[in-house]
Amino acid sequence: MQGVRKNNYTKSLAILVIVIVLFFLPQYGSDYAISIGVLIFLYISLGQMWNLLGGYSGLVSLGQQIFVGIGGYTAALVTEVWHQSIAVSLVVAAGVSLVFAFIISFPIFKMRGVYFTIGTWIVSEALLVFFRNWKFVNYDAGYNITIAYRIPMSQIYHGALVIGIGSVVLVYLILRSRMGLALMSMRDNEGAAEVRGVRLYRTKLYCFVISSVYTAITGVVLYLNIAYIKPGAAFGIDWTVCMVFIVVIGGLGTIEGPIIGAVVYVILRQYLYSFPGISMVILGAVAVAIILLMPKGIMGAIHKKFGVEVFSVRRRIDERLEDGS
User: Fold this and answer.
1) What H or E segment, with its residue span, contains residue 153?
2) Contact at 8 Å (CB) between 53 and 177?
3) What is the pTM of this model?
4) Count of C-beta atoms within a 10 Å radius of residue 204
5) What is the C-alpha R_g of the chain?
6) Is residue 280's pLDDT more than 90?
7) Is the pLDDT of residue 38 over 70?
8) pLDDT tens digit string along 137-183?
9) Is 127 helix (H, G, I), strand (E, B) or coil?
10) Which of 23, 58, 159, 229 could be cross-linked to 72 through a Cys-Cys bond (beta carbons 3.0 to 4.6 Å apart)?
11) At what angle do helices 31-54 and 200-226 cross, to 10 degrees?
12) Helices 86-108 and 114-132, interaxial angle, to 10°?
């Protein structure tokens, strides 16, 4: 027991040191390093939210770009049309995504398996067509998000850092709760979970709404970093493809997986800018190679060989006894 506690203290201290080093990166890092950091933290957040759905709940979605687009367009409209602050856009994005996720949950939760996956993708395609023909959002021309040019890069970096770390903490806390147990039991066997008292629809709804709202918040900062938005990019399936890539190569159903996957994905994308015609082919080949060599992803292979697990969501018997449960 003391060895376990000592190991936990060591891991906590190491994580704290890493966070402190990352927090002060703008003071000693180059502009390029800062921009890479922004992308990594934001993709960590996207990966964690997709992993919460697909890896821990069994809700494999191909429509999470819905909420990236909602976040991006909220940032554009709130700042460009209504001339409000970024803080207001974050609140509005959270509210709009919450309502929209709740509305579409009624039809798509009636679908299971591949039908749920296709259903989420159809909703995103419908939104893409709608925004391309909606005058209020400037049709397919999109918006320049000019407020982004007035925000120091260090502030965008720290915002991305908070969002990235927040996504890890949020998923960890959910998985260590009763809701986390319900999600994983639902993923493994919905029928058995329902017999054991898991309220399937409510559990799915909570998970879907949390993932959607946080994805939209991430979308706000993503498009502040990009500084331009149009429907084809905002609601394109490329966002979900990158989320799936990040989670699969990092390790599906692990908290560490999306962190590793985001780092690998961003670094690969930087190098592949020199090969615009075949960059997606190379990414696909990398994904296939990792799946064949490491079916459980990079983190799964590390855990199998070395027994390393940074964020353990398993509850030990002695912990439950200490909690009085």
Assistant:
1) helix 153-175
2) no
3) 0.91
4) 23
5) 20
6) no
7) yes
8) 888 888 889 999 999 999 999 999 999 999 999 999 999 888 888 88
9) helix
10) 229
11) 160
12) 130
